[in-house]
């Protein structure tokens, strides 16, 4: 499927209600992402709007809230048992002074979700389990057989050395409050080299 970003899909009221749910948790999973689970109240707030965007062929399968102050590693959120699934990112709060973006690569990983640790030691994650090294070391689809575009690297991906991103190409999407970004769940994606902090909600839907 084609990646789309649609603006002004949610109201400030809905967005603030979602943020209230996120802030109501006492504890958050994982150091880098401060994740929190999707609640029934979350789905009550967004389901009808999402149905209007993606139609009735999709069923909610997983999701989480997240907050970060540092770019997160390239990863996927796909599970093979879902066969055909989409990933929806709903930016909730942008404290990046406009620097925050989601980078979605043209390359896909067709196995269960992984996180590439790049030049860092492998950590333990319960989902999106960590792999040593970079996506180019693995059988990802659509490799460019080239280094990453220099301008793209300098604008968005300087959190890791340029060689780490070889064989990848992609686009970025602004972390725009009240927008929705919809993309194929097999696509490798990551955060750009933003400064500040951002809070979002990500939901996965599989084709029913
Ligand atoms: Fe993700």
Continuous helix count: 3
Cα end-to-end separation: 16 Å
CATH class: Mainly Beta
Q: Write the H/E string, N to C.
A: EHEHEEEEEHEEEE
Strand content: 25-35%
Strand order of the largest sheet: 1-9-4-11-3-2
Helix proportion: 10-25%
Estimated structural class: alpha+beta
Number of domains: 1
Radius of gyration: 16 Å
Average pLDDT: 96
Walkthrough of the structure:
This protein has 208 residues and is of the alpha+beta class. It has one domain: q2cbj1_9rhob like domain (Jelly Rolls). The chain is 16% helix and 32% strand. It contains three helices and eleven strands. It has a six-stranded antiparallel sheet with strand order 1-9-4-11-3-2. Strands 8-5-10 form a three-stranded antiparallel sheet, with no helix packed on it. α1 packs antiparallel against α2. The radius of gyration is 16 Å and the shape is globular. The two termini are 16 Å apart. The relative contact order is 0.30. The structure holds fe (ii) ion. The site of fe (ii) ion has 4 residues, from loops.
Helix and strand arrangement:
Elements: E1 4-6, H1 12-23, E2 36-37, H2 40-54, E3 58-68, E4 85-95, E5 101-108, E6 114-116, E7 129-131, H3 150-156, E8 170-174, E9 180-184, E10 187-191, E11 197-207
Parallel strand pairs: 6-7
Antiparallel strand pairs: 1-9, 2-3, 3-11, 4-9, 4-11, 5-8, 5-10
Helix pairs in contact: 1-2
Bound molecules: fe (ii) ion.
């Amino acid at each position: 499927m084609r990646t789309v970003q649609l603006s002004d899909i949610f109201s400030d009221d809905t967005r603030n209600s979602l943020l209230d749910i996120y802030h109501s948790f006492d504890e958050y999973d994982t150091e880098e992402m401060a994740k929190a689970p999707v609640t029934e109240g979350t789905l009550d707030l967004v389901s009808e709007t999402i149905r209007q965007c993606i139609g009735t062929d999709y069923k909610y399968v997983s999701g989480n809230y997240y907050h970060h102050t540092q770019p997160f590693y390239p990863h996927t959120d796909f599970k093979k048992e879902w066969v055909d699934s989409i990933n929806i990112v709903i930016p909730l709060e942008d404290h990046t002074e406009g620097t925050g973006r989601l980078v979605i690569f043209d390359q896909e990983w067709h196995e269960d979700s992984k996180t590439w640790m790049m030049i860092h030691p492998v950590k333990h994650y319960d989902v999106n389990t960590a792999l040593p090294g970079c996506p180019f070391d693995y059988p990802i689809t659509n490799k460019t057989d080239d280094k990453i575009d220099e301008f793209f690297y300098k604008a968005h991906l300087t959190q890791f050395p340029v060689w780490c991103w070889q064989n990848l190409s992609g686009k970025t999407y602004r972390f725009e409050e009240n927008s929705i970004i919809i993309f194929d769940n097999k696509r490798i994606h990551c955060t750009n080299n933003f400064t500040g902090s951002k809070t979002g909600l990500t939901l996965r839907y599989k084709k029913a």
